[in-house]
């Protein structure tokens, strides 16, 4: 790539990809194909309105989590040649997700104010480098607890599909990679380009960063997206219960508005539903593990095993011990 810093700002949308070891192929493919289809009319694949490179410290093949391998197409050129650098993560049990040269390159890009986007567990890589501390991070509900444990001081949420917080982006992965790419296409190219890409991909509409991850928390039904977001937050905070005021603020409502919404759709208060979420999680642990009941009580936010057992009986009609014996 021979473009200058100024040309990169005014030319086509340019994206550099950094693929971690055992990266998620679907997330990368959906992101880059959205750019490809937006870059030209119909399905001609010309790099007219967008361009992209897979960056690497070597040209060695990088294996995805499903075994398919991708070859880098560019060395580590000046980060300022790109509008965004996208880090695609994958399996969290990979010992070394990226090498030291790649780490240095991402730090250099951050120092040069180039926006960085973590897709799937790419956010873990950026956080490990200290690049997400002051940025709201969006991760999949599947990886929420792992992120909180590894980076307890970093703000994180698992209800939304993707987020762009100033010079950092984050995306839950899966099909939401196409949504985030479409958002960038609309911002830098046009709505027509976005529409062309999504239609060819057979995607009905681009979901926004405010759309909720398609997760049904512990079999509790609701339709309002704000309630779904609150339920996902409840499920993510079983042990450390979040006050109702904070739950409401999280979705842009007052406490009274949230309580009214719960009563209208779920015929119960936020507190009652929160208790049900915690009890449903406790029931899972009782049936699926051999953990002592006191450990289960602590895991779902109770200091007293007796209090936990009484509430469990009130909700399910039998004590945790009785339920476990019945399923033995």
Automatic annotation (TrEMBL):
Q: Which SMART domains match?
A: HTH_ARAC
> A Pfam family matched by this chain, by name?
DJ-1_PfpI
What's the superkingdom here? Bacteria
* Keyword Zinc-finger in annotation: no
Annotated signal peptide: none
- Indicate what this protein is called per its UniProt record: GlxA family transcriptional regulator
> What Gene3D superfamilies does this protein map onto?
3.40.50.880, Homeodomain-like
Q: Does the keyword Transcription regulation apply?
A: yes
| Keyword entries, A-Z | DNA-binding, Transcription, Transcription regulation
Question: Domain HTH araC/xylS-type: where?
Answer: 228-326
């Amino acid at each position: 790539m021979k473009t200058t810093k100024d040309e990169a700002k005014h030319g086509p949308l340019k994206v550099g990809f950094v693929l971690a070891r055992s990266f998620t192929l679907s997330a990368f493919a959906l992101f880059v194909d959205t750019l490809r289809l937006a870059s030209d009319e119909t399905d001609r694949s010309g790099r007219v309105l967008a361009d992209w490179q897979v960056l690497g410290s070597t040209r060695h093949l990088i294996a995805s989590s499903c075994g398919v391998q991708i070859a880098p197409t560019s060395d580590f050129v000046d980060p300022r040649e790109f509008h965004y650098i996208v880090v695609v993560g994958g399996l969290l049990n990979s010992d070394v997700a990226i090498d030291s040269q790649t780490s240095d390159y991402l730090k250099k890009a951050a120092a040069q104010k180039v926006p960085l986007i973590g897709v799937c567990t790419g956010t873990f890589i950026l956080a490990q480098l200290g690049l997400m501390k002051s940025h709201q991070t969006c991760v999949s509900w599947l990886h929420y607890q792992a992120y909180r444990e590894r980076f307890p001081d970093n703000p994180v949420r698992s209800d939304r599909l993707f987020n762009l917080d100033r010079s950092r982006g984050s995306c839950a992965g899966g099909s939401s990679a196409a949504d985030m790419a479409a958002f960038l296409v609309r911002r830098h190219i046009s709505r027509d380009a976005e529409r062309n890409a999504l239609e060819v991909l057979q995607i009905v509409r681009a979901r926004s960063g405010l759309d909720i991850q398609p997760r049904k928390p512990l079999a509790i039904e609701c339709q309002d997206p704000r309630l779904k977001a609150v339920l996902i937050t409840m499920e993510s905070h079983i042990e450390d219960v979040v006050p109702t005021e904070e739950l409401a603020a999280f979705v842009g409502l007052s406490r009274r508005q949230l309580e009214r919404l719960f009563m209208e759709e779920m015929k119960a208060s936020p507190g009652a539903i929160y208790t049900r979420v915690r009890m449903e999680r406790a029931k899972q642990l009782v049936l699926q593990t051999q953990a002592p009941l006191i450990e289960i009580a602590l895991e779902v936010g109770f200091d007293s095993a007796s209090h936990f057992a009484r509430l469990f009986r009130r909700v399910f009609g039998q004590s945790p011990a009785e339920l476990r014996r019945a399923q033995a």
